[in-house]
Amino acid sequence: QEQLQESGPGLVKPSGTLSLTCTVSGASISRYYWSWIRQAPGKGLEWIGYIYYSGSTNYNPSLKSRVTMSVDTSKNQFSLNLTSVTAADTAVYFCARGSEWLYSWGQGTLVTVSS
Amino acid sequence: DIQLTQSPSFLSASVGDRVTITCRASQGFSTYLAWYQQKPGKAPKLLIYAASTLQSGVPSRFSGSGSGTEFTLTISSLQPEDFATYYCQQLNSDPYSFGQGTNLEIK
Lengths: 115, 107
Fold this sequence. Notes:
The complex is a heterodimer of chains A (115) and B (107). Helix content of chain A is 0%, strand content 51%. By secondary structure, chain A is an all-beta fold. In chain A, the strands form two sheets. In chain A, strands 2, 4, 5, 6, 9, 10 and 11 form a seven-stranded mixed sheet that branches. A four-stranded antiparallel sheet of chain A has the order 1-3-8-7, with no helix packed on it.
């Protein structure tokens, strides 16, 4: 079964850009859709969006103006950029395989927005 | 947007109990619903998709049902490893929203 691993800075300054990468092993990124989900501390899950290897995307409308996802097939990775972050974007960010049913997940990475 | 409300939010039960968690939707839809289990500090795990299809490797004591505005997750006989938080998620329309979660604790 595939494994997913998130990576990126754990601390981002307010108004800055949050950038995360998910590295996939055990599966070709070109075969599936890939998603990002986040969870604020002590809170529930929030769907951010998904991307297909072709570059086709679908974002949560509440975040759409600030979100960009991309895929690097040569590295078997996909990425998330979230601009103009505030403290409300502090959360554990998960990557996952799938666009609807999220079959497998990374362990998650905590990103804190603070000066 | 479709809002999902889970009930109860907190549930205390004993090993061997049968428990049911309900997910109610603000708008009806067919079977575009999934259930996830999350343990503290871990990623969620897919249990049920398409409202009633058991994900591979998930014990058969878990089952899902429903359509329209009411969906249920049932655990037929609680095991110690089942104490966790459970979330429903609708995939019928954007944004793919989650319920607020049900925290299942040991009595």
